[in-house]
Design brief:
Elements (H helix, E strand, L loop, with lengths): L1 E6 L2 E4 L4 E9 L6 E7 L6 E6 L6 E3 L7 E6 L4 E6 L8 E8 L15 E2 L3 E6 L1
Parallel strand pairs: 2-11
Antiparallel strand pairs: 1-3, 3-8, 4-5, 4-9, 5-6, 7-8, 9-10, 9-11
C-alpha cells in the first residue's frame, strides 16, 4: 500500500503561483511513477503531469506546458507540482497518483494509476 497526501492548494489571483506537494508513505516511493490530475466542477478528472522514477522524464498536458513543472525528491518521498502563470481555468481539485507499470511511456489515463491522494483545492480568481 502507498498512502498519498496532497498539500499546498489555496486561493490565488490569476497570474500567480502555487506549489503543490504530495507526500508518500508506505511502500518504496522510488519504485512508482507519479502523476498529477485535476478535476474541475462538473468536469471529468483529467491528466496534468507525470514523472518517471528518477525524475528524468516528464510529461504534461498541452494546456499547462511552459507553466507547470512536476518534480520529485525520492529522499523525501515527495512529488511536487510548481504552477505558475495560473489562469481561472486551472481552478480544480488537484490529485496526485502513483503507478507501477513497466510501460516505457508515462501514463495519462486515470485507470492506469494504482494509488490516489484525497486532493487539494486550487482556486484561481480573475
Amino acid at each position: 500500500q502507498l498512502q498519498l497526501v496532497e498539500s499546498g492548494g489555496g486561493l490565488v489571483q490569476a497570474g500567480g503561483s502555487l506549489r503543490l506537494s504530495c507526500a508518500a508513505s508506505g511502500r518504496a516511493f522510488s519504485s512508482y511513477r507519479m502523476g498529477w490530475f485535476r478535476q474541475a466542477p462538473g468536469k471529468e478528472r483529467e491528466f496534468v503531469a507525470a514523472i518517471s522514477w528518477s525524475g528524468g522524464t516528464t510529461r504534461y498536458v498541452d494546456s499547462v506546458k511552459g507553466r507547470f513543472t512536476i518534480s520529485r525528491d525520492n529522499a523525501k518521498n515527495t512529488v511536487y507540482l510548481q504552477m505558475s502563470s495560473l489562469k481561472p481555468e486551472d481552478t480544480a481539485v488537484y490529485y496526485c497518483a502513483a503507478e507501477s507499470s513497466s510501460y516505457i511511456e508515462l501514463r495519462v489515463r486515470i485507470n492506469e494509476y494504482d494509488y490516489w491522494g484525497q486532493g487539494t483545492q486550487v482556486t484561481v480568481s480573475s
